[in-house]
């Protein structure tokens, strides 16, 4: 049996950036949460496709708290990296930063965790390579990711029982 070689977290890391314009904002000049959520989903999807070498679909997005508003004219960057890999699923952490390019100031505005599943040619879940944890921080994040994954499974089981 051939074992699939693992991939490093750095091999699939993604940075996605965009300048926020008037079309991205509400009447107060704040960027719509949905615009940021879409960027987060795209960055996470790209990271998981790089890791799995397959198309992926979003199956879960943990809560996303907007720490501070993002305003029109800000440069938004989403940095995505895998934290955990199961057999067909992958958890990705996406950190959102907003920069005021005129002032040169930047701050983290959101952190989100999403789960994606890799798909084969017929649209069915398919195995992905294991994830190689290189640092102590990678290992700590993986442990927290395993706990989140277990919590998600418990939530699904509870929802199925009450349906």
Task: Outline the secondary-structure elements.
Layout: E1 7-8, E2 14-19, H1 33-52, E3 56-61, E4 75-85, E5 89-100, E6 105-118, E7 131-132, H2 136-162
Parallel strand pairs: 1-7
Antiparallel strand pairs: 2-4, 3-6, 4-5, 5-6
Q: What are the salient characteristics of this protein?
A:
Thiol Ester Dehydrase, Chain A, 163 residues
CATH topology: Thiol Ester Dehydrase, Chain A
Rounded to the nearest angstrom, the radius of gyration is: 17 Å
What is the spatial order of strands in the main beta sheet? 2-4-5-6-3
Number of strands: 7
The CATH class name reads Alpha Beta
- Terminal-residue CA separation: 41 Å
Structure description:
With 163 residues, the chain is α+β, with helices and mostly antiparallel strands. It has a single domain (7-162), classed as Hotdog Thioesterase (Thiol Ester Dehydrase, Chain A, Roll), CATH 3.10.129. The chain is built from two helices and seven strands; from the N terminus they run ββαβββββα. The strands form two sheets. It has a five-stranded antiparallel sheet. Strands 1-7 form a two-stranded parallel sheet. The longest helix is centred in the C-terminal third of the chain and has 27 residues, at 136-162. The radius of gyration is 17 Å and the shape is globular. The N and C termini lie far apart (41 Å). The mean pLDDT is 94.
What is the structure about, briefly put?
With 163 residues, the protein is α+β, with helices and mostly antiparallel strands. The protein contains two helices and seven strands. It has a five-stranded antiparallel beta sheet with strand order 2-4-5-6-3. A two-stranded parallel sheet has the order 1-7.
């Amino acid at each position: 049996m051939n074992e699939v070689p693992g991939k490093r977290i750095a091999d699939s890391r993604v940075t996605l950036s965009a300048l926020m314009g008037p079309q991205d904002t509400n009447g107060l000049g704040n960027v719509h949460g949905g615009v940021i959520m879409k960027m987060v989903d795209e960055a996470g999807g790209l990271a998981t496709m790089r890791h799995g070498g397959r198309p992926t679909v979003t199956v879960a997005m943990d809560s996303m708290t907007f720490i501070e508003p993002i305003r029109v004219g800000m440069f938004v960057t989403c940095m995505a990296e895998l934290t955990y890999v199961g057999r067909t699923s992958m958890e990705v952490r996406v950190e959102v930063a907003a920069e005021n390019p005129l002032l040169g100031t930047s701050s983290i505005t959101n952190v989100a965790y999403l789960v994606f599943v890799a798909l084969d040619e017929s649209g069915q879940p398919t195995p992905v390579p294991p994830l190689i944890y290189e640092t102590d921080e990678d290992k700590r994040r993986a442990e927290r990711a395993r706990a989140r994954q277990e919590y998600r499974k418990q939530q699904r089981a509870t929802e199925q029982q009450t349906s």
